[in-house]
Amino acid sequence: MESIAVCPGSFDPITYGHLDIIRRGAKVFDKVYVVVLNNIAKQPLFTVQERIELIREVTKDIPNVQVDEFSGLLIDYAKSVNANAILRGLRAVSDFEYEMQITSMNRVLNEDIETFFVMTNNQYSFLSSSIVKEVAKYNGKITELVPPIVEKELHKKFNA
Question: Which of 76, 85, 103, 122 is 20 to 30 Å from the Cα of 158, by its Cα?
Answer without folding.
Answer: 122
